[in-house]
UniProtKB/TrEMBL annotation:
Signal peptide: none annotated. It comes from Tetrapyrgos nigripes. It holds the Pfam family GST_C_7. Coiled coil: none annotated. This is GST N-terminal domain-containing protein.
Length: 253
């Protein structure tokens, strides 16, 4: 839950022009904080300001850039102004929150950290088709300072303009790529038990793996809109399993 006290945790997120919270990675942490009912306040950081902000707080980067050497500073990040310590990377944040708030529901139940790492790796390999739809739409929704940074880095990554990456509506290419996304998400949906809302077999409560998936599924809803044909598609795919998950996670939004 959000809170204005100076002593609550600070959650660093990335703003947009008019979408509100939009990043799938920061959504994982937003879900996690609300699930554990931990008071926090959000500070919005534009892309060019992420590295200097985290350096100022002595929050270590969680990865390196493509060269394998240069530190890469990313969000989400959490900072505790009382302990004067912070952490970045959504899974590392989940473990950190469980350690510091053991009385709250567990995000990563005992003995499941390896499962969560495997889930993240396997999930990432099945959503490549999503990025051509989502990354350009993010570019067009960011504030001016972030848009320039995001466009430059993503166009270098994909080797083309965002307008070229985005499948043109009504084309056969778009239909084919949308089908690939359905198939990829179908593999992920298949990891859930037939009658289970959440991934832990027999559990009636979410865990961090559900927030990993939920962050990327709600990303589609945010970018295209609740009433869009794209969201209606995704919410109905695979017997409506993904739509039911997002509905179940509404109380943690």
């Amino acid at each position: 839950m959000s809170n204005d006290s100076d002593n609550v945790l600070i959650f660093y997120d990335i703003p947009s022009r008019d979408l509100g919270p939009w990043s799938p990675n920061t959504w994982k942490t937003r879900y996690a904080l609300n699930f554990k009912n931990i008071p926090y306040k959000t500070i919005w950081v534009e892309y060019p300001d992420i590295e200097p902000t985290l350096k100022q707080l002595n929050i270590a980067p969680c990865m390196t850039k493509a060269d394998g050497v240069t530190p890469h500073y990313t969000l989400p990040a959490i900072y505790d102004p009382v302990r004067k310590e912070g952490v970045t990377d959504s899974l590392a944040i989940a473990v950190w929150l469980d350690e510091r708030y053991p009385e709250a529901p567990k995000l990563v139940p005992e003995g499941t950290l390896t499962f969560h790492k495997a889930f993240l790796s396997a999930f990432s390999s099945n959503i490549e088709a999503m990025l051509q739809f989502t990354i350009p739409k993010v570019t067009w929704a960011l504030n001016e300072r972030s848009e320039g940074y995001f466009r430059k880095t993503r166009e270098e990554r994909f080797g083309m303009k965002m307008e070229e990456l985005y499948p043109e509506p009504g084309t056969e290419k778009r239909k084919g790529e949308w089908k690939k996304l359905e198939e990829g998400l179908g593999k992920v949906a298949g990891w859930y038990g037939k009658d289970n809302t959440f991934v832990m077999e027999g559990e009636d409560s979410a865990c961090f793996a559900d927030f990993m998936l939920g962050g990327f599924i709600i990303w589609i809803r945010i970018l295209f809109g609740k009433n869009s044909e794209e969201w209606k598609d995704v919410a109905s795919w695979h017997g409506g399993r993904l739509g039911r998950l997002i509905k179940a996670l509404e109380k943690y939004e």
